[in-house]
Structure formats: C-alpha cells, structure tokens
C-alpha cells in the first residue's frame, strides 16, 4: 500500500510547485488589466505568505484530528478553488480576497506532507520529492507563458486550477492508502502526536536554532531567485534578455541538485548533506564575487543552486531524529512558518538595500545569511542528539 502511495505523493509535490511561479510570471500582464499598481503584486504575495504561516502553525492540531491524507486533499482542494477564483477574477480586490484561502491551503499541506515523508521514507525520497517541486515550480511559468500567448493570464490560472482539482479527486479516491489511523499518526506515534502546545514546542532544545536555519535558507534561496538577474544586468552589464536566462541557471541547479542528492544520501547522512550544501554555496558565492569579469558568474550561480539543493530536504528529513517522531509534525509546522517569514522579509530587504547602497552587495549579503545558517545548523546539531 505504501508503494502505491508514493507516486501520489510525488504528484502532490509537483502540484505544490505549480502555483508558486504563476504570480511573478503573470503580473506584468495582470496589473494593467486590473487597474492595479506595479507594486500591487507584492501585497497579494504577502497575503499568501501570511496565510501559509498561519496554516503551517495550525497543522499540528489539524493533523492529529484529520490525518495527513485528509489534510492533503482538503488543502489541495482549497488551493484549487482559490486558483479557480483567480482565473475568474476581474478586479484587484478579488485577488487579495482569494489570496487568503490560497495561502491557508498551501501552508498546511506543505507541513503535513513533509512530515509524513520524513517519518515514513528514506532521505533519497525527500530529495527527489523536492526535485518534483522544482519541476512544478518551473512548469507553472511555462503554462502561464503559453496562456498569455493564446488568451490571457486568466487561462493560465484556470489550467493550473484544473490540474489541482484533478489531483484533489485522486487524493480523495486514495485516502485509504495513507498509512495512518484516524488520529493522524502511524501506529505507535498516535499517543504522543500533537500533544505539545506551540509554546512547549518552542522550548524544545534546538527549535530556535532550526527556525533560524529555515529562515536563513529561504532568505538565501528567494533572494538569489529574485535578484540574480537584476545583479547580472545592473552590476555586470549583461543585457536584460540574457540576464533572465542566467538567473534561471540557479533554479536549474536546485532541481538537478536535488535529483543528484537523492543518490548521494545512500552514503551520506542528513547532517553531512547540510554541510556539503553549505560548502558548495560558499564556493558559488565566491565565484560570483570574484572580480574576473563574467567568466565565473555562470558557474557561480549554478553552484549556488547545487548547494541549496540538499539543505532544505535534509533539515526536514532529520526532524524526527532530532526532536522525536511524536514532536515532528509540530516542529515541521514551526519550520515551515519560519521559512515563509524568511521568504517574505529577506528578499524585499535586499531590494531596499540594493536601491539604497548598490546591488553589487549581493554576494556579501548572501555570505552573511549563509554564515548565520551554518552557525545555527552546527549549534542545532550540538543541542540535539538523534532520537532513534
């Protein structure tokens, strides 16, 4: 039964990634038709992020009542309906309103699925599943670009909504496959799952450190993804049409790196995968910063993607070992919330610093974030002894 479930989880991770790049890809076409400002997309993004934080923190209690299968089906269905609403919207305020269920659906399913995989599958599946997320995140903008050439951004959202609705039906039809009881945890874990309150979870040794790790990781990933192309153009003088392709090299590295990482985990444990990723990121930042023209820039961006690839899946996968299976859902919810806060705050902060000082500080900014993440990860591993 578990082997039949795994392909469903892989499809769910692709589906998780599909909506993530839609707003950025469509907004240049959306804001004029909606009569909104160019910066208006930022408010929609922030509402979505706020919803993901709330739902991720609520996931522990919901998972205990409903179980991962039901949470996944409900959350994907909620996101699907929100996307359908986007496809039918004709006013900016409607998008802001629909961004609430959009975010609430995304955060809980992310936390629930990551916890389920961390508890029941090997590290290689965590890496490969996050590779599937990368495929979905890359595919969303492709679907939107096709829709924009055929009709409008509404069609793009409608197509992705249709895919999500289909996945919701699949999830509803396969609920029996989920290896858990109605209490929401596998046999042997149900007794302790979800019993700790949020303040109690925050007091567990290592939780503040792992929160900082997730905050810094997402700050690193999103800042590179958002500003790499601008750095190439404004600092290195690369034409904007070329710079967008150069910036996409980072995401290619992340996706390919997670595929490769799955094989490396056969011989390397989660803690060393995190260290390996951080060392590769450091090498990438060094190449980007080197004053040798643009020869080292492309390899640097690729190395940054390859370095980021194993870090996020490895930290999630080691959560049950660090904090115990009975605490893993609550801790992963906190981790997801910290990740979304990092995503929301740190990329705009760099944009502000870049405008105020210079976009040339990008390598230094990334180096500081990476250093803090390294210190927090090592501190985390000193504070937590793996729970077997």
Describe the structure.
By secondary structure, the chain is an all-alpha fold. It has helices at residues 2-17, 22-34, 40-66, 68-88, 92-120, 123-150, 153-173, 198-202, 207-234, 240-264, 270-289, 297-317, 319-323, 325-356, 362-383. It is globular, with a radius of gyration of 20 Å.
Highlighted features:
388 residues; mainly alpha; 0% strand; globular
E-strand count: 0
Strand content: under 5%
Low-confidence stretches: 180-192
Biggest sheet, open or closed, and with what strands and sense? none
Radius of gyration over C-alpha positions, nearest whole angstrom: 20 Å
Helix count, DSSP H or I runs of 4 or more residues: 15
Helix content: over 70%
The residue-averaged pLDDT reads 85
Shape: globular
Order of helices and strands: HHHHHHHHHHHHHHH
Task: List strands and helices in order, with pairings.
Layout: H1 2-17, H2 22-34, H3 40-66, H4 68-88, H5 92-120, H6 123-150, H7 153-173, H8 198-202, H9 207-234, H10 240-264, H11 270-289, H12 297-317, H13 319-323, H14 325-356, H15 362-383
Task: Describe what is shown at a glance.
The protein is mainly α and about 400 residues long.
